[in-house]
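re: ur question from yesterday

yeah so i grabbed the chain u mentioned. its 368 aa long if i counted rite. heres the sequnce exactly as i have it in my notes:
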Amino acid sequence: MTDETASSTVAIKGPVSTEEPQFDPIVTPRETGLFNIDKSVIDSFPIRGTRVIHAFAYGQSRLSQTVKLVVEFPDKSTECYFLKVIMQGELARKMCEGEYESLKAIHDVSPDFSPKPYAWGNYGDGRSESYFILEEFPPALLARGLADLHQRSKSPTGKFGFHVQTCHGRIVQQVEWWDDSWAAVFDRHLRHFISLAYSYLKWPEFDAVGTLILDKVVPRLLLPLQQNSHILKPSLIHGDCWDGNTAMNAKSGNAFVIDMCSFYGHNEYDTGNWRAPRHKLSSGEYISHYKAIIPPSEPAGDWDARNLLYSLTFNIGNAISIPGSRQAHVVCDDMMALCNMFCPNDLRDAMAELEKSKDRSVDVAWVI
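ran it thru and got these structure tokens back, copy pasting raw so excuse formatting
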């Protein structure tokens, strides 16, 4: 079937909840229907005269339509590509540009660890859609491949941050700036997630605890990484490395990663997403393999607390993005745990002040 005759509406499956544990994320996606391909995609192939001979809805995605393309080149050879179409207007543009630039940066460093991106842009059919194309091919085992990416990557400025906005799902990350301080970059990144969470996490203590996390815990855990002669290398990170963003080549059995929202940060940040029990990557085996290649940064004794801190953005993102998410309770418990570890007196004072304000509001209500 050619691109001209493919149907655009067949068997596109609905969203998949990330709340349930993903016990086997390396399942080959299924071809579930036909998909119409716009001319703007065909024009973006690297070889002129390329013809789409098959286009199937492929796998499942909450935020986009994902398509497997089989194309024929002028010399009659064929190749498979992966197409993602997001219909979210201006947000789609940011998501596609951010992921394209993330993929490009990762592929330049570790070509065996991510698909090669070819193009992104407006889908070109009159709607505000964006697209990008990925070549389907495999790279290396997950922990080893991620560690290799972290070790071999080099920030173009020598600083932390990124040159464009990238998106964690629908959340536009605040990482498009450069700074010598990882604590400063992460503070802005987490501060944005916390500000978005206020309307989702219906927890009276969230405001006070969120302030303590940013003002007390972040500097306590992250400033020492670059103090006392400690040097922290800005590493290119995936940004959302969990089961659903990994895949496996059916022939080689090698794992690779997709759906990046990258920036240059502390390499341990990526493993914060491996902490969540809802992910298979929470298995200690993955962390052990990673640590065997890249030991914890100094002070090494803070590794687990840093990992808990880094998990906050991923769990807040889940709580915001997934209707009925249970991660709100996890976020609250983890934030309280961090405050109890590093600023217990401030936490006690904040909770006491909150109780006083509750009492005052009751008194005012009674007078009224």
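noticed a couple things. The two ends are 73 Å apart (CA to CA). also The chain has two domains: 34-135, 142-353.
anyway ttyl
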